[in-house]
Specification:
Layout lengths: L5 E2 L2 E2 L12 H28 L12 H22 L2 H5 L1 H11 L1 H10 L7 H16 L1 H9 L7 H26 L11 E3 L7 E3 L3 H4 L2 H14 L9 H4 L6 H32 L7 E2 L6 E2 L15 H20 L1 H19 L10 H36 L2 H15 L2 H11 L2 H24 L8
Antiparallel strand pairs: 1-2, 3-4, 5-6
Helix pairs in contact: 1-2, 1-6, 1-8, 1-10, 1-12, 2-6, 2-7, 2-12, 2-16, 2-17, 4-10, 5-6, 7-8, 7-16, 8-13, 8-15, 12-15, 12-16, 12-17, 12-18, 13-14, 13-15, 14-15, 14-18, 15-16
Amino acid sequence: MSSIPVKGDWLQEWDPEDPKKWDKKRAWTTLTVTTFTLTLCFVTWFLPSAIVPKLNALGFSFTTSQLYWMAAMPGLSGGLLRLVWMVLPPIQGTRKMVTLTTLLLILPVLGWGFEVTNPDVPYWRLMALAFLAGIGGGAFSGFMPSTSYFFPKKMQGTVLGIQAGVGNFGVSLVQLLTPWLITFSMFAFLGSQQMAVPGKDSVTVWYQNSALVYIPFIIVGAIWAYIVLRSVPVKANIKQQFDIFNNLDTWLMTALYIMTFATFSGLAAQFGLLMSNLYGAGNPAIVDGSGATATLLIEGYNVPDPVKFVFLGPLIGAGARVLFSPLTDRMGGAIWTLIAGIGILASIIYTIPGLTPDTTSAATLDAGFNQFLWGMLAIFLFSGIGNASTFKQMPMIFNRRQAGGVIGWTGAIAAFGPFIFGVGLTTMGAVPFYIIGAVWAVMCIGITWWRYARPGAPRKG
């Protein structure tokens, strides 16, 4: 592919800042392969979010709290596993890490495909599968730093925005395709299920399709990665990589990425359940009972089906990350992080009234739902912009190896978003939790302005 000498997995000479030691074609090929496999990682990570809201309609009998915890578990495991994956790029290299990670996705995807067909499966087994889905989340903190090694600093915003943004489309992909995939009998050997939705006739579905359809793509991705990829000689042991924690900017950028990606991932995982529990079958003031015996209590109200809406938020957030990344290369990341923070704050404030449904009539419910929906989509938009801008800032603030480590670390902490949102919504309710989010946004706006965006700021990025 290039004149750059290769020994085994490792490129012997590689410096993206020196045109003589950089192979543009190999760099973009690496981005293509790792972005494809990262998309499958996000599909795996958010597969439970497309299945969990429908479990009771399929004959399972879990409580609202159990469902919240199940949807939150991939966030907990994803965050924990990112702490592992963040140190792998300099140790394993791109080729081994991407290939082995992609193969590991088979475990949770295959498991969900089989277990969703059995309403008698114990709760702990589904929780274990939800934990294993976090492998897809953990991969992010290895894939992104690894990719950053292949490109010059001037392209980091665009490149990392493309990879992360297209990877984030995996969230929308699994949530958008699931309602369509379950209508086919492609894996009929596992049987079919009856799905009972309040106010509608029971329908026959094949929910195993929502998971098993991705297995061939995972296998192809792993083989493609092993054949095509090589590794950049950026090496450091675990102890050496921990020097990032002596830098104040590591902690400040972590706070900013919590505001952006933790919000994106947390809302993406909980959007469907939150919508159902506020404006759908999960609100006992709207729907009495569940399954085939459910009764609509508000005359004239059209209960929203979460599967028709939940993909929109991640789609908007991922799209914003891709589209705004070139602007961060052109204008700098800090100004866009500032804009994102202000936008997130305003969107949260707008959304809060919609978190308390007025059940006096169908009209008031519809008005509240519209405010809730548009507010949530606005939060996704600005969190996507912030995801792009923060990843532009990090390669500009830190040297190449440290930037990779900080990208991995911040990604790891922000990956706890689905878990934090699940616990927060379960224990304190939506309104108090969103108020805390607004306060956090105010803090991050202040950090961005003081440290990175104002004239004469100590660190420009």
